[in-house]
Design a protein that fits this description.
7 strands, two-stranded antiparallel ribbon, 12% strand
Protein backbone atom coordinates (compact mmCIF):
# COMPACT_ATOMS: atom_id res chain seq x y z
CA UNK A 1 0.00 0.00 0.00
CA UNK A 2 2.89 2.36 0.77
CA UNK A 3 4.50 1.65 -2.61
CA UNK A 4 1.13 2.24 -4.26
CA UNK A 5 0.81 5.62 -2.50
CA UNK A 6 4.37 6.69 -3.43
CA UNK A 7 3.82 5.99 -7.12
CA UNK A 8 0.07 6.24 -7.94
CA UNK A 9 0.74 6.10 -11.69
CA UNK A 10 1.97 2.51 -11.46
CA UNK A 11 -1.22 1.48 -9.72
CA UNK A 12 -1.75 -1.61 -7.61
CA UNK A 13 1.41 -3.74 -7.89
CA UNK A 14 0.03 -6.85 -6.20
CA UNK A 15 0.32 -9.92 -8.42
CA UNK A 16 -2.95 -10.96 -10.05
CA UNK A 17 -3.52 -14.62 -9.39
CA UNK A 18 -6.53 -16.74 -10.29
CA UNK A 19 -6.55 -19.79 -8.06
CA UNK A 20 -8.47 -22.90 -9.00
CA UNK A 21 -9.40 -25.17 -6.09
CA UNK A 22 -7.99 -28.69 -6.31
CA UNK A 23 -11.39 -30.22 -5.62
CA UNK A 24 -13.24 -28.33 -8.36
CA UNK A 25 -15.51 -30.26 -10.72
CA UNK A 26 -14.02 -31.43 -13.97
CA UNK A 27 -15.63 -30.17 -17.22
CA UNK A 28 -17.26 -33.57 -17.69
CA UNK A 29 -18.70 -33.59 -14.17
CA UNK A 30 -19.94 -30.05 -14.66
CA UNK A 31 -21.73 -30.98 -17.88
CA UNK A 32 -23.31 -34.01 -16.19
CA UNK A 33 -24.55 -31.82 -13.33
CA UNK A 34 -26.11 -29.32 -15.75
CA UNK A 35 -27.76 -32.08 -17.76
CA UNK A 36 -29.34 -33.47 -14.59
CA UNK A 37 -30.55 -30.06 -13.42
CA UNK A 38 -32.05 -29.30 -16.86
CA UNK A 39 -33.55 -32.72 -17.51
CA UNK A 40 -37.30 -33.21 -17.98
CA UNK A 41 -37.47 -34.90 -14.58
CA UNK A 42 -35.63 -32.27 -12.55
CA UNK A 43 -35.92 -29.12 -14.67
CA UNK A 44 -38.74 -27.70 -12.55
CA UNK A 45 -37.09 -28.47 -9.20
CA UNK A 46 -34.60 -26.54 -7.13
CA UNK A 47 -31.27 -28.11 -6.09
CA UNK A 48 -32.64 -28.53 -2.57
CA UNK A 49 -35.18 -30.95 -4.08
CA UNK A 50 -32.87 -32.57 -6.64
CA UNK A 51 -30.04 -33.64 -4.33
CA UNK A 52 -32.19 -35.65 -1.83
CA UNK A 53 -34.01 -37.46 -4.66
CA UNK A 54 -30.68 -38.46 -6.22
CA UNK A 55 -29.44 -39.60 -2.82
CA UNK A 56 -32.48 -41.88 -2.43
CA UNK A 57 -31.44 -43.56 -5.69
CA UNK A 58 -27.90 -44.04 -4.44
CA UNK A 59 -26.48 -41.30 -6.67
CA UNK A 60 -24.22 -38.47 -5.53
CA UNK A 61 -22.91 -36.03 -8.10
CA UNK A 62 -22.32 -32.88 -6.04
CA UNK A 63 -23.54 -31.10 -2.95
CA UNK A 64 -26.56 -28.84 -2.94
CA UNK A 65 -24.37 -25.73 -2.70
CA UNK A 66 -22.34 -26.91 -5.71
CA UNK A 67 -25.54 -27.31 -7.74
CA UNK A 68 -26.52 -23.78 -6.83
CA UNK A 69 -23.04 -22.43 -7.62
CA UNK A 70 -22.86 -24.08 -11.06
CA UNK A 71 -26.37 -22.98 -12.00
CA UNK A 72 -25.57 -19.42 -10.93
CA UNK A 73 -22.41 -19.41 -13.03
CA UNK A 74 -24.48 -20.51 -16.04
CA UNK A 75 -27.11 -17.84 -15.33
CA UNK A 76 -29.70 -20.52 -14.66
CA UNK A 77 -30.36 -19.81 -11.00
CA UNK A 78 -33.88 -18.52 -11.58
CA UNK A 79 -37.44 -19.46 -10.80
CA UNK A 80 -37.84 -23.06 -12.02
CA UNK A 81 -41.51 -23.78 -11.42
CA UNK A 82 -44.58 -22.91 -13.49
CA UNK A 83 -46.20 -20.30 -11.23
CA UNK A 84 -45.39 -16.65 -11.65
CA UNK A 85 -42.08 -15.75 -9.95
CA UNK A 86 -42.01 -13.14 -7.22
CA UNK A 87 -41.67 -9.59 -8.39
CA UNK A 88 -39.93 -6.69 -6.73
CA UNK A 89 -42.43 -3.93 -6.07
CA UNK A 90 -41.43 -0.37 -5.41
CA UNK A 91 -42.72 1.77 -2.59
CA UNK A 92 -45.94 3.64 -3.35
CA UNK A 93 -45.66 7.23 -4.46
CA UNK A 94 -44.93 9.61 -1.60
CA UNK A 95 -47.95 11.79 -0.82
CA UNK A 96 -48.42 14.88 1.33
CA UNK A 97 -51.34 17.01 2.48
CA UNK A 98 -51.22 20.53 3.88
CA UNK A 99 -54.97 21.01 4.17
CA UNK A 100 -58.26 19.10 4.34
CA UNK A 101 -59.88 17.44 1.33
CA UNK A 102 -56.56 16.71 -0.37
CA UNK A 103 -55.65 13.16 0.65
CA UNK A 104 -58.11 10.48 1.74
CA UNK A 105 -57.47 6.94 2.95
CA UNK A 106 -59.96 4.09 3.13
CA UNK A 107 -60.27 0.42 3.89
CA UNK A 108 -62.80 -2.25 4.83
CA UNK A 109 -62.89 -4.15 8.11
CA UNK A 110 -65.01 -7.03 9.35
CA UNK A 111 -67.68 -6.67 12.02
CA UNK A 112 -68.74 -10.01 13.57
CA UNK A 113 -72.31 -11.29 13.34
CA UNK A 114 -74.07 -13.94 15.37
CA UNK A 115 -73.51 -16.46 12.59
CA UNK A 116 -70.02 -17.90 12.75
CA UNK A 117 -68.09 -17.18 9.57
CA UNK A 118 -70.42 -14.40 8.41
CA UNK A 119 -69.55 -10.72 8.82
CA UNK A 120 -70.78 -7.24 8.17
CA UNK A 121 -68.35 -5.02 6.28
CA UNK A 122 -67.48 -1.52 7.44
CA UNK A 123 -66.35 0.85 4.67
CA UNK A 124 -64.46 3.70 6.34
CA UNK A 125 -63.00 6.78 4.66
CA UNK A 126 -60.86 9.35 6.47
CA UNK A 127 -59.12 12.62 5.64
CA UNK A 128 -55.44 12.06 6.44
CA UNK A 129 -54.71 15.73 7.12
CA UNK A 130 -57.49 16.29 9.66
CA UNK A 131 -58.06 12.62 10.63
CA UNK A 132 -61.78 13.22 10.22
CA UNK A 133 -63.96 10.31 9.13
CA UNK A 134 -65.49 11.83 6.01
CA UNK A 135 -67.62 8.85 5.07
CA UNK A 136 -68.63 5.38 6.17
CA UNK A 137 -71.21 2.67 5.65
CA UNK A 138 -71.85 -0.88 6.82
CA UNK A 139 -72.97 -3.46 4.27
CA UNK A 140 -73.57 -7.18 4.22
CA UNK A 141 -71.13 -7.68 1.36
CA UNK A 142 -67.97 -6.06 0.06
CA UNK A 143 -67.92 -4.91 -3.55
CA UNK A 144 -66.53 -2.14 -5.71
CA UNK A 145 -70.10 -1.04 -6.57
CA UNK A 146 -70.92 -0.30 -2.93
CA UNK A 147 -67.57 1.41 -2.40
CA UNK A 148 -68.25 3.60 -5.43
CA UNK A 149 -71.58 4.68 -3.93
CA UNK A 150 -69.88 5.78 -0.70
CA UNK A 151 -67.22 7.73 -2.62
CA UNK A 152 -69.86 9.45 -4.72
CA UNK A 153 -71.72 10.50 -1.57
CA UNK A 154 -68.50 11.81 0.04
CA UNK A 155 -67.59 13.91 -2.98
CA UNK A 156 -71.08 15.43 -3.01
CA UNK A 157 -71.11 16.28 0.71
CA UNK A 158 -67.52 17.56 0.80
CA UNK A 159 -67.92 19.48 -2.48
CA UNK A 160 -64.89 17.74 -4.00
CA UNK A 161 -63.83 19.18 -7.34
CA UNK A 162 -62.22 17.05 -10.06
CA UNK A 163 -58.50 16.38 -9.51
CA UNK A 164 -58.70 17.71 -5.96
CA UNK A 165 -58.39 14.54 -3.89
CA UNK A 166 -56.11 11.52 -3.93
CA UNK A 167 -57.71 8.38 -2.50
CA UNK A 168 -55.29 5.81 -1.06
CA UNK A 169 -56.17 2.20 -0.32
CA UNK A 170 -54.76 -1.30 -0.31
CA UNK A 171 -55.02 -3.80 -3.17
CA UNK A 172 -58.29 -5.51 -2.25
CA UNK A 173 -60.77 -6.41 -4.97
CA UNK A 174 -63.32 -3.74 -3.90
CA UNK A 175 -60.56 -1.12 -4.13
CA UNK A 176 -59.38 -2.11 -7.61
CA UNK A 177 -62.68 -3.30 -9.05
CA UNK A 178 -63.74 -1.96 -12.43
CA UNK A 179 -66.81 -0.17 -11.05
CA UNK A 180 -64.83 1.58 -8.31
CA UNK A 181 -62.10 2.71 -10.71
CA UNK A 182 -64.70 3.94 -13.20
CA UNK A 183 -66.42 5.91 -10.43
CA UNK A 184 -63.15 7.52 -9.38
CA UNK A 185 -62.41 8.47 -12.97
CA UNK A 186 -65.86 10.01 -13.37
CA UNK A 187 -65.49 12.02 -10.17
CA UNK A 188 -61.93 13.08 -10.93
CA UNK A 189 -60.56 11.35 -7.81
CA UNK A 190 -57.00 10.11 -8.26
CA UNK A 191 -56.40 6.57 -6.92
CA UNK A 192 -53.30 5.44 -5.02
CA UNK A 193 -52.56 1.88 -3.89
CA UNK A 194 -50.37 0.10 -1.36
CA UNK A 195 -48.03 -2.70 -2.23
CA UNK A 196 -49.63 -6.15 -2.00
CA UNK A 197 -49.65 -7.53 1.55
CA UNK A 198 -47.89 -4.45 3.00
CA UNK A 199 -50.21 -2.97 5.61
CA UNK A 200 -47.68 -0.28 6.54
CA UNK A 201 -48.42 1.45 3.24
CA UNK A 202 -51.88 2.33 4.54
CA UNK A 203 -51.14 3.10 8.21
CA UNK A 204 -53.85 5.68 8.88
CA UNK A 205 -56.77 3.38 8.09
CA UNK A 206 -55.14 0.48 9.93
CA UNK A 207 -54.63 2.64 13.01
CA UNK A 208 -58.19 3.94 12.82
CA UNK A 209 -59.53 0.38 12.80
CA UNK A 210 -57.47 -0.42 15.88
CA UNK A 211 -58.90 2.63 17.65
CA UNK A 212 -62.39 1.50 16.67
CA UNK A 213 -62.05 -2.09 17.84
CA UNK A 214 -60.28 -1.26 21.10
CA UNK A 215 -62.82 1.30 22.25
CA UNK A 216 -64.28 0.41 25.67
CA UNK A 217 -67.73 0.67 24.12
CA UNK A 218 -66.96 -1.85 21.37
CA UNK A 219 -69.54 -4.63 21.77
CA UNK A 220 -68.28 -7.79 23.40
CA UNK A 221 -70.96 -9.78 21.64
CA UNK A 222 -71.41 -9.98 17.85
CA UNK A 223 -73.78 -7.53 16.23
CA UNK A 224 -77.34 -8.79 16.15
CA UNK A 225 -78.24 -7.27 12.78
CA UNK A 226 -77.17 -4.69 10.23
CA UNK A 227 -79.10 -1.87 11.91
CA UNK A 228 -77.36 -2.51 15.24
CA UNK A 229 -73.94 -2.40 13.57
CA UNK A 230 -74.74 0.86 11.78
CA UNK A 231 -76.02 2.47 14.97
CA UNK A 232 -72.85 1.58 16.87
CA UNK A 233 -70.56 2.81 14.08
CA UNK A 234 -72.53 6.06 13.90
CA UNK A 235 -71.94 6.59 17.63
CA UNK A 236 -68.24 5.83 17.25
CA UNK A 237 -67.78 8.20 14.30
CA UNK A 238 -69.49 11.04 16.18
CA UNK A 239 -67.20 10.48 19.16
CA UNK A 240 -64.10 10.21 16.98
CA UNK A 241 -64.82 13.32 14.92
CA UNK A 242 -66.26 15.64 17.57
CA UNK A 243 -65.02 14.49 20.99
CA UNK A 244 -61.77 12.57 20.53
CA UNK A 245 -58.72 14.84 20.90
CA UNK A 246 -56.21 13.35 18.53
CA UNK A 247 -52.62 13.14 19.76
CA UNK A 248 -51.09 13.50 16.26
CA UNK A 249 -52.80 16.86 15.63
CA UNK A 250 -51.98 18.50 18.97
CA UNK A 251 -55.00 17.11 20.79
CA UNK A 252 -57.73 18.89 18.90
CA UNK A 253 -60.69 17.01 17.46
CA UNK A 254 -60.63 15.95 13.80
CA UNK A 255 -63.76 18.02 13.14
CA UNK A 256 -62.09 21.15 14.53
CA UNK A 257 -59.00 20.64 12.40
CA UNK A 258 -61.08 19.84 9.32
CA UNK A 259 -62.97 23.13 9.78
CA UNK A 260 -59.74 25.12 10.28
CA UNK A 261 -60.45 25.91 13.94
CA UNK A 262 -57.32 24.25 15.33
CA UNK A 263 -54.99 27.24 14.84
CA UNK A 264 -57.12 29.51 17.04
CA UNK A 265 -57.49 26.83 19.71
CA UNK A 266 -53.78 26.10 19.77
CA UNK A 267 -53.00 29.82 19.86
CA UNK A 268 -55.06 30.14 23.04
CA UNK A 269 -53.10 27.26 24.56
CA UNK A 270 -49.82 29.00 23.72
CA UNK A 271 -51.00 32.20 25.46
CA UNK A 272 -52.22 30.22 28.47
CA UNK A 273 -48.91 28.41 28.89
CA UNK A 274 -46.89 31.60 28.48
CA UNK A 275 -49.00 33.30 31.14
CA UNK A 276 -48.51 30.35 33.48
CA UNK A 277 -44.76 30.53 32.94
CA UNK A 278 -44.72 34.25 33.72
CA UNK A 279 -46.55 33.66 37.01
CA UNK A 280 -44.21 30.87 38.11
CA UNK A 281 -41.00 30.96 36.06
CA UNK A 282 -39.25 28.78 38.63
CA UNK A 283 -41.45 25.87 37.60
CA UNK A 284 -40.23 25.91 33.99
CA UNK A 285 -36.79 24.63 33.07
CA UNK A 286 -37.19 25.37 29.35
CA UNK A 287 -39.67 26.47 26.75
CA UNK A 288 -43.37 25.82 27.12
CA UNK A 289 -45.12 22.93 25.45
CA UNK A 290 -45.21 22.93 21.68
CA UNK A 291 -48.75 23.79 20.59
CA UNK A 292 -47.89 24.75 17.00
CA UNK A 293 -50.24 23.21 14.42
CA UNK A 294 -48.96 20.27 12.37
CA UNK A 295 -48.77 21.88 8.95
CA UNK A 296 -47.94 18.90 6.71
CA UNK A 297 -48.93 15.24 6.91
CA UNK A 298 -46.99 12.58 5.00
CA UNK A 299 -48.04 9.23 3.57
CA UNK A 300 -45.28 6.81 2.55
CA UNK A 301 -42.58 9.52 2.40
CA UNK A 302 -39.31 8.96 0.58
CA UNK A 303 -36.36 7.93 2.71
CA UNK A 304 -34.67 11.33 2.87
CA UNK A 305 -37.95 12.93 3.97
CA UNK A 306 -38.57 10.19 6.53
CA UNK A 307 -35.10 10.75 7.96
CA UNK A 308 -35.73 14.48 8.17
CA UNK A 309 -39.00 14.05 10.06
CA UNK A 310 -37.83 11.02 11.99
CA UNK A 311 -37.59 12.86 15.29
CA UNK A 312 -40.38 13.51 17.73
CA UNK A 313 -42.52 15.35 15.23
CA UNK A 314 -42.11 12.59 12.66
CA UNK A 315 -43.35 10.02 15.14
CA UNK A 316 -46.49 12.06 15.65
CA UNK A 317 -47.11 12.46 11.95
CA UNK A 318 -46.26 8.97 10.73
CA UNK A 319 -46.84 6.47 13.49
CA UNK A 320 -49.55 7.77 15.78
CA UNK A 321 -52.11 7.78 13.02
CA UNK A 322 -55.27 7.45 15.07
Amino acid sequence: MQRWQRDPLRGDQRPIRVQTPKNTLSPLERERLLSIANSAEFGHLSPSQIVPQLADRGQYHASESTFYRVLKAENQLKHRRTERPSQARGKPRALTANGPDQLFSWDITYLPTRVRGLYFYLYLFMDIFSRKVVGWQVYETESSELAGEVVRDICQREHIAPNQVILHSDNGSPMKGATMLATLQTLGVMPSFSRPAVSNDNPYSESLFKTLKYRPSYPRRPFENLLTARQWVNTFVHWYNHEHRHSAIRFVTPAERHAGLDSALLGKRVALYEAAKERHPERWSGVTRNWQPVSVVYLNPDQHVADKIGGKEGCLVLKNAA
